[in-house]
Design goal:
homodimer; alpha/beta; Rossmann fold; Dehydroquinate synthase-like, alpha domain; 2 domains; six-stranded parallel beta sheet; globular
Amino acid sequence: MAIKEYYTPTHVYFGKGAEDKVAEVLKSNGAHKVLVHFGSGSVKRSGLLGKVEAALTEAGIEFTELGGVVPNPRVSLVRKGIALVKEQGIDFILAVGGGSVLDSAKAIGYGAYDGGDVWDFYCRKRKVEGTVPVGVILTLSATGSEMSDSSVITNDETDPVYKRGVSTDFGRIKFALLDPELTYSVSRYQTACGATDICMHTLERYFHQGYALDFTDKISFALLKEVMESAKVALEHPDDYDARANLMWCGSLSHNGLTGAGNETNGDWACHQIEHELSAEYDVAHGAGLAAVWGSWARYVLDVDPSRFSKLGEGVFGESDPVKTIEKFEEFFRAIEMPTDIKGLGLDFDEEACRKAALGVTFGNTRTIGDFKVLDTEDIFNIYMMASGLK
Amino acid sequence: MAIKEYYTPTHVYFGKGAEDKVAEVLKSNGAHKVLVHFGSGSVKRSGLLGKVEAALTEAGIEFTELGGVVPNPRVSLVRKGIALVKEQGIDFILAVGGGSVLDSAKAIGYGAYDGGDVWDFYCRKRKVEGTVPVGVILTLSATGSEMSDSSVITNDETDPVYKRGVSTDFGRIKFALLDPELTYSVSRYQTACGATDICMHTLERYFHQGYALDFTDKISFALLKEVMESAKVALEHPDDYDARANLMWCGSLSHNGLTGAGNETNGDWACHQIEHELSAEYDVAHGAGLAAVWGSWARYVLDVDPSRFSKLGEGVFGESDPVKTIEKFEEFFRAIEMPTDIKGLGLDFDEEACRKAALGVTFGNTRTIGDFKVLDTEDIFNIYMMASGLK
């Protein structure tokens, strides 16, 4: 059995007003000139950005703004960021926003540390060798990028566009300021997408081959139960601190390695690959895409080991029937207004679209995906067909 | 509400043969000359020490041995270690053993980094300002020192002897090599003591005033359930990998901050203080001492908030009656052959002994302890009396 690493060095500050620590924490991390990286402007409208920049100014920390990150963050903006960091001698990157902003910040960090093309890291041509340090003020509970080693970037300079992730210990950021109150204003839809993504980071790890550590399973069940309870509350009461706080911490722990600790492998991750093809090509929300394909994936792979589904059902729902376990998760997705098929994403997939997407996932039939069950292009095609109601 | 920090930078390598990584990991941490610190010699007899030293020699890493750490580790040996580190220019301390060895290694690290008296840190005269880096090959699942920020040392140079702990981020060690197989040879008694200590690190955090994050409670319940299941299995089958692996990982996560994350305070910790007085003065095993006093503490503080006990009982035993919850934990302690009163420790306490111990805990009536309920000397006296069957 392989030796499993667990490495979560990110210094977390959690609770109301955590963002007020920003200048102090930047200073203790040796930051002198900061790139303040953000998205569409909601952090401007909410006043958060102004508050942060005032704190930096008061503390005598120089900064440069770079906004404009979009969901499924683009390599073109990353390149702009890298140029800024290099030109201006920036020594710290502060992401203010959600996982897309942070993933973009990580990419800028890798690229600015290095002389070559940043996309090389994402298409596996070269390994990340270092990074300009990164921290985050998080405004969305979803990707878990704040404690994970991963960053996902979309290459919008190519046709078709590619969405690729890279995982490296250099992606473990210096600090995460987690104030659940900053997520009160997140929309119903994005709250639900985030909750789905959080569940999936644990479900992907739960389904794997080989040795499973029971305590890790128990933590996974605790996490899944919490997300399901809290997501429903947060949709009803967007400013419920408990619900937002639980979702936020579940988001961080679902993707920092905890829910895969001690297990033989790092998990399945097929659904993420199957979904990435949808969000890269059709720009759907990642969480919604995951909800749309998970049930079909689960039914397709169920026979590999129904007992794994039974244990999950027992631990989360007190219901050990494997098929009912799948149905219960789909019920949850519907309860938070997530789609459970591709049509629900607003996409009308025919057989050709399924074939094209499957080939996209396997990079033109040159790789397989999955660990619980290894999937080739034909398997993935079948899952897309099932998720499209064609099989 | 206070902002809560969560900081667990220790790089963990978990699984069979994790100790084989030692030379590689020492090198990646820049170690050139290592103090190999250990205890009574069981690591010599088992062959582990020889294996580790052979690996270091092969990798060209110099080392010096310092054995002789005892349970409730002594400041006198710490002073020897500090002198060795300074004289020989040692740049890394490798603990090979359990929590006592690691706590001693941490103390050596603090003292060797600093010019003054190491005991000053433990009696709160000065703050730890840095450390010689430390790593561990763990052979006992108990104290959680491998991921915690704390170190507990006994001053054997004074009369009466003092047992004091210090918590600092410098106590977060560089790496922990966790191989559950190394704990197969741990005795029934030490396995049970360790399991009790692990439970208590979570129970101490669970009982607190102010805001509680529900997800943290759920993780705590998962951990307590796992320890209880796995401890019983490990007593029956000492070489059961699953049981040993679950206990080991529970031990690390029970004291790294996870089971208190997002909560208003850092927990109660009264039982630890009440127990430390027993193990300092009478050298009883820490875990056994905790089991001996917990039930009395719980009955004494129950009225503060019975609902907290109900939630615990519901989460762990599916039983929400507060008194029955206390009884169920005591049943577990008895099932693993731990005492549930002071007599069970082999101590015959009278009223005077209770009074003396209570005054010891409050440093001669100069402090209070506890958070769920703040306890003064009289309260602690009452708890000792209850635990001695005198009240």
